[in-house]
What does this fold into?
Amino acid sequence: MVVPNGRNDLNELSLPKFSNSAKQVITNFLMELDEYVALRKTSNELKLPLCFRAIEDPFAKEWLQSMIL
It folds into this structure.
């Protein structure tokens, strides 16, 4: 199986990270995250916790938490 970024094994597919809102484009990150959960066949129950783990930027993490609560 060949997957995006030239990888050929799902075990090598790493979770995309959003770590710097000043330098990263959120739409690109969201597309990569969506692709990741689709390829890994992530269950709906795990998608939100996975999203929290993927977002490292303090501002973005705070925003996400405020939207959930």
About this structure: Residues 25-69 form one domain. The helical segments are 26-39, 44-54, 58-68. Residues 48 and 68 are 10 Å apart (CA to CA). The chain has three helices and no strands.
